[in-house]
Amino acid sequence: MNEKALVLAANAVARQGGQGLNLQHMLEALREDFSLSVFCRGSGEPRTHQVPASPLSTWMGRVPLLRRRRDWMVLASDLHFDHYVASHLPAADVFQGVVGQCAESLHAARRRGMRTVLDVVNTHVEDFRAHVDRESHKFGLKGNIGPRMYRRILDEYRTADVVRVMSERARRTFLARGFPEEKLVVATPPLELSEFPQATFPQDVFRVSFVGLIEPWKGFHYLLEAWDSLKPKDAELVLWGGPGSRAATNMLREFQARDTSLVVKPVEVRKVGYGEVYGKTSVLVHPSLADGFSYSVAEAMASGVPVIVTDNTGAADLVEDGVNGYIVPTGDARAIRERLEHLHRHPELLPGMGAKAREAVQRHLTPENFRRPLVTRILQALA
Fold first, then answer.
1. What is the pTM of this model?
2. Confidence (pLDDT) at 1
3. Can you spell out the DSSP letters for 84-149?
């Protein structure tokens, strides 16, 4: 059988950030079964088209007042990327794009007779947007999905033949809104365990980590509230990431002014090293209000660290409550506090729970478990 041609488009640089990791995983999985052409912001792969940066988005990033409107900058960048791909689309059997970045490209691909795949990295946009808007409003901010982006995403949902989601929990947010089940496929990202040194659980300090952009929809304020009411001895809370708004910065300063155990490190985990971040962590807390997956949860578990996650985090699919971590209700600071207090009082539980966490990653997040359902579903669409 002749090898099918697939065009893969992602407004990212391979291995940089969450979307870059997702792009790299797609490249590794799809090249086994398809002849790939790639549109992205980086270079290096065969038949790679390096899409130039959006002039408008770049200009906005240089203007202080506009730089705060990350939603405008993202929209400008994604519109530019999408138009470039649609204008330079080569002949192929399949086109695959990332949600929010490919509305025009999907239509162009369908006009040329291609099957189309949409890669959705979050929960359903209505679920995600509701959480983002609600939590942003508490900070006096606007959500990061404006009306135009919202309409684009819904159009992408309708246009695609196959919609890939990153977790069973994300899949359920689509089904709850009447989305056709036959269009959905769950392909959970793989992890290479050898990249993650094992946690050592230092005896002198109980270290709680949060990893990610410090944004309202990430729920960091619920973690701060839990920590503030707990005030454990011989413990510290480390936020690995930078604040995404002035309101978040002000809240962090307020908490740090009265609690020296709160530490903010605005650095990239991959540059600092997994061993420095997860290897010295007692427990990772991911209080996100809506996440299609969450690489930080999977990475912590791969490092043998127990986790506390919300029930609307995709990586909670890996968590067996009370065995390798805990699943708490979304937006429940009290539940986070109770789990932290329990682990602080019983540090002897940490190594065993961490070992179970690593076993879950080893069992579920394999390249074959990622590749097989995705490729099978694409080939079905072609047939």
1. 0.93
2. 47
3. HHHHTPPP-SEEEEETTS-HHHHHHHHHTT-EEEEE--SS-HHHHHHHHHHHHHHTT---S--HHH
Query: Locate tokens 């413990």: which residue?
Result: 235
Rounded Cα distance between 7 and 165, Å, is 19
DSSP three-state, residue 300: helix
Parent domain of 290: 193-364
Q: Which residue intervals of the chain are DSSP H helices?
A: 17-30, 55-60, 64-67, 70-87, 103-111, 125-138, 147-159, 168-175, 220-230, 246-258, 269-272, 274-277, 295-302, 333-345, 350-364, 367-382
Distance CA 319, CA 6 (A): 34
Q: How far apart are CA 351 and CA 28, in angstroms?
A: 33
SS3 310: strand
Tell me if 131 sits within 8 A of 111, measured CB to CB.
Answer: no
Same domain, residue pair 169 and 248: no
Q: Tens digits of per-residue pLDDT, 277-309?
A: 999 999 999 999 999 999 999 999 999 999 999
Instruction: Output the domain CATH number for residue 98.
Output: 3.40.50.2000
